[in-house]
Recover the amino acids of this structure.
């Protein structure tokens, strides 16, 4: 097969490759560092720059940095406020017309004067074409405390001036987001953006700037994001017409009477820290799914941490048992502490992506028919009581493995049983977090999934006899480990004498990327032998401590597989 350099590829193919490499800049919680990472690609050559996707220039970032200095003549630290931005880069790339979002990041605890308006003016972000930005997002704990110490004489007056500045400078503003915490997304085990949570308990004054801005702008917004400890406070009746709403339940507890969210145009709804039932009271006329919510395409219901341990298990109210003609994305977390089966309402929805994040022992309440027609599945179990061993039947999870499903991409996390049998014949991508993953089971899994291209396994050990690492009821262990599977010809292959080894049979003709990690025993020789039966494999990802030994074995077998760090393949396993 002839080889080509990237620049010899057709422009449309190269554009798709570069768009994939720039995926991080589209992340919900992207920061300035993600933009600079994308620009490393844009500056390779003019041809690559011309192939950059428009989404790489989606954000204008303005980030505050606090520099501490220790002048000799002063006994106290001096904090210097520095604002940095990618605006110069956007101008150099000749793409000032592409950004639609201004993201202000303040991940510090500085309490001095805000002076954001001065920074935006100095950067030129209040003049054309930047005044056409439609979204402003404020990220980081700095939005809680800026402008709250004695250097700001009248906080509310300063907040009112801040609102007047934003209203005058960005007259096309349609969306505001407030995120007091910036969830990390660089960890390869975190494939979905973690829900913003309340920062640690505080006993300080919270800046009124952003709550004033949000409350006064709310009536003209189409998108609103607000998470605790920020709140929405209205002093007069109001009805908000939104296309996207993301709220912490604690935010809408403080709403004034006669304040509602109209659902007519709602396409995305994300509710966090739901303490009991879904709070339908904040919506005008409640949840009338067959009417106003018929346009909903994304729904996220994240119940409060710990609700999964409650004893109450209500049946779904009648108004939730409706069809969802356009719902394609459903993320539900810890609902089984409130509802017996919150997923039954969505069995007939045209779901493309489904997240199930529930207590392991309550998974039996969920009808597996919900995964029948989806294409992406994120199954994340919560081990009850934080036990190191659950001593429960493995079939609480494996019943999902045996369900008929069209799923193509799956992420199975937080210690699930190894799938000895998996009926998902369309599976192309699988990420698995399990306890024991011996090589015989890995090969058996590959033999079942003939279309699988991307496989990543994180396990406790690769030793099939390690009973201490087995999470489930011991009586199931003989079924779930290679004790019940006879050795194959692969196990007899000698890396130092391949010519005398038995014939090598292909395990998978489709696998291109394989990642393997074990906190305990890691079988380097078995991983190396496996490469001989994977003719399409291009990339093998392992932890650094095993990389040299694997590379040495690859030289012996004369393979072209590239060995890399385990975290480098995370981009292949993102579902969101």
């Amino acid at each position: 097969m002839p080889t080509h350099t990237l620049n010899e590829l057709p422009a449309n193919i190269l554009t798709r490759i570069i768009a994939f490499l720039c995926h991080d800049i589209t992340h919900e919680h992207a920061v300035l560092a993600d933009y600079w990472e994308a620009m490393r690609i844009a500056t390779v050559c003019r041809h690559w720059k011309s192939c950059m996707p428009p989404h790489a220039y989606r954000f204008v970032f303005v980030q505050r940095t606090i520099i501490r200095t220790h002048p000799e003549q002063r006994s106290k630290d001096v904090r210097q406020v520095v604002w940095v931005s990618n605006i110069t880069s956007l101008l150099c790339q000749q793409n000032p017309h592409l950004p639609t979002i201004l993201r202000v990041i303040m991940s510090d605890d500085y309490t001095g004067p805000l002076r954001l308006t001065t920074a935006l003016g100095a950067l030129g972000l209040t003049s054309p074409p930047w005044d056409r930005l439609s979204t402003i997002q404020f990220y980081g704990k700095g939005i809680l405390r800026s402008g709250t110490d004695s250097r700001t004489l009248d906080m509310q007056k300063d907040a009112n001036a801040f609102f007047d500045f934003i209203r005058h400078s960005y007259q096309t503003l349609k969306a505001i987001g407030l995120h007091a915490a910036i969830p990390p997304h660089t960890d390869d085990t975190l494939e979905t953006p973690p829900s913003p949570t309340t920062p640690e308990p505080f006993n300080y004054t919270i800046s009124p700037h952003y709550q004033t801005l949000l409350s006064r702008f709310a009536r003209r917004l189409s998108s609103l994001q607000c998470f605790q400890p920020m709140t929405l406070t209205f002093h007069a009746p109001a009805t908000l017409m939104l296309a996207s709403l993301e709220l912490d339940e604690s935010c809408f507890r403080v709403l004034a009477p006669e304040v509602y969210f109209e659902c007519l145009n709602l396409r995305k709804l994300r509710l966090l820290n739901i303490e009991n039932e879904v709070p339908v009271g904040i919506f005008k006329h409640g949840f009338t799914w067959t009417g106003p919510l018929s346009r909903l395409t994304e729904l996220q219901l994240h119940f409060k941490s710990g609700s999964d341990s409650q004893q109450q298990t209500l049946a779904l109210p009648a108004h939730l048992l409706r069809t969802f003609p356009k719902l394609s994305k459903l993320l539900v977390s810890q609902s089984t502490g409130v509802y017996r089966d919150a997923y039954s309402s969505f069995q007939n929805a045209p779901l493309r992506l489904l997240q199930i994040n529930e207590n392991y022992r309550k998974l039996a309440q969920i009808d597996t028919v919900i995964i029948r027609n989806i294409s992406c599945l994120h199954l994340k179990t919560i081990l009850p009581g934080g036990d190191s061993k659950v001593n429960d039947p493995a079939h609480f999870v494996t019943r999902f493995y045996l369900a008929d499903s069209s799923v193509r991409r799956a992420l199975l996390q937080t210690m699930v049983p190894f799938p000895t049998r998996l009926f998902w014949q369309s599976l192309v991508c699988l990420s698995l977090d399990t306890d024991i993953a011996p090589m015989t089971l890995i090969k058996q899994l590959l033999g079942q999934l003939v279309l699988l291209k991307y496989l990543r396994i994180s396990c406790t050990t690769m030793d099939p006899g390690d009973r201490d690492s087995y999470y489930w009821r011991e009586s199931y262990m003989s079924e779930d480990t290679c004790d019940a599977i006879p050795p194959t010809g692969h196990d007899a292959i000698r890396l130092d004498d391949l010519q005398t080894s038995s014939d090598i049979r292909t395990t998978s003709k489709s696998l291109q990327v394989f990642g393997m990690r074990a906190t305990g025993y890691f079988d380097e020789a078995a991983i190396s032998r496996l490469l001989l039966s994977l003719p399409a494999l291009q990339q093998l990802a392992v932890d650094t401590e095993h990389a040299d030994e694997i590379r040495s074995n690859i030289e012996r077998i004369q393979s072209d597989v590239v060995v890399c760090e385990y975290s480098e393949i995370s981009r292949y396993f993102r579902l969101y």
Observations:
- The longest helix spans residues 155-169.
- Residues 184-202, 480-485 have pLDDT under 50 and may be disordered.
- The first strand starts at residue 59 and ends at 69.
